[in-house]
Amino acid sequence: MIEMKNVHKVYDNGVTALSGISTKIEAGEFVYVVGQSGAGKSSFIKLMYHEEVPTDGKVNINHIDIGKMKKRQVPYLRRNIGVIYQDFKLLPKLTAYENVAFALEVIEENPRKIRRRVMDVLDKVGLKHKARFIPAQLSGGEQQRVAIARAIVNNPKIVIADEPTGNLDPDTSWEIMRIFEEVNDTGTTLIMATHSREIVNSIRKRVIAMENGQIVRDEHRGEYGYED
Ligand code: ADP
Ligand code: ADP
Predict the structure, then answer these.
(1) Residues enclosing ligand 2, CB less than 6 A?
(2) How far apart are CA 142 and CA 136, in angstroms?
(3) Burial of 126 per CB tally in 10 Å (0-12, 13-18, 19+)
(4) Residue 8 Cα, ligand 1 centroid: separation in angstroms?
(5) Centroid of ligand 1 to alpha carbon of 213 (angstroms)
(6) Which runs of E-coded beta strand occur in the chain?
(7) pTM of the model
């Protein structure tokens, strides 16, 4: 479903972030992206949701070359991809409910259906009872769970997480991972950049390891495998 062919990314300042990335990720996979800071993990995943475009090479999603996608087509792509960040990126003045509802693509749905959908995903992440809270009233783990609810509210085919547990303590990180496993179990492709050796080595999944803008290892049920 996601295919990169000889992808290069050179930023405007001349920094080469990716040099010759080729890989395929099939529907329903769970993939960790590991590597030291600056290895190119963020650049690699940003290309998948058109946050960045490749300097050279192809990024195909379901055989569509998204590198060549027009700006007005990007919202349609994003509807099928949920993104989760290390720092949550919730809107601070909106409640948990509103942060999720805001992301819901409303296509002629009645308000009751919208409310049910939002409450269902908040329930899924265990936060139905805190729907009225604003981010400042929630713990980091709770904020990340709201962000996950926001990412999955449109039933995306792909969820991409960039160091989602980077700001969380270990217990909270395991809770987040349980939710990711549930999301993946329903068939959603999950791609997660991480620095957590513990998580990668205990919840075994495919591991793509990056170094200097290249994929240096790609293993089914792989290990974290390098020293930070
Ligand atoms: P990682 O996520 O593994 O830390 P990144 O993809 O963020 O790696 O970064 C890869 C390289 O690209 C680094 O040298 C970084 O400084 C550089 N880089 C990342 N984003 C930008 C940007 N917007 N402009 C210029 N250089 C960037
Ligand atoms: P229940 O599951 O008990 O029926 P509701 O669906 O009425 O609960 O709402 C549960 C929580 O969701 C409420 O406490 C409220 O904070 C929040 N909520 C529901 N609708 C909205 C809305 N439109 N805007 C903000 N918060 C809402």
Answers:
(1) 95, 97-98, 115, 119, 131-132
(2) 10
(3) middle
(4) 13
(5) 9
(6) 2-10, 16-25, 30-34, 56-61, 64-65, 81-84, 158-162, 189-193, 206-211, 214-219
(7) 0.89
What is the spatial distance between Cα 154 and Cα 67, in angstroms, rounded to a whole number? 23
Pair of tokens at residue 226 = 């390098």
Distance between alpha carbon 129 and the CA centroid of its chain, in Å? 25
Q: How far apart are CA 168 and CA 228, in angstroms?
A: 18
In this structure, the number of other CB atoms found within 10 A of the CB of residue 129 comes to 10
Tokens 């990711």, residue located = 180
Point out the ligand 1 atom lying closest to the alpha carbon of residue 13: 25
> Distance between CA 140 and CA 145 in Å, rounded?
9
**pLDDT digit string, tens, across residues 32-56:** 999 999 999 999 999 999 999 999 9
What length does the chain have? 228
Q: What are phi and psi of 178, to 5 degrees?
A: -60, -40
CB distance 48 to 160 below 8 Å: yes
Closest C-alpha among 95, 97, 133, 131 to residue 114: 97
Q: Confidence class of residue 183 from pLDDT cuts 50, 70 and 90?
A: very high
If DSSP codes are grouped into helix, strand and coil, which group holds residue 101?
helix
Residues with Cβ < 8 Å from 143, sequence gap 6 or more? 88, 90, 135
Given the CA of residue 116, which atom of ligand 2 is nearest to it?
Answer: 6
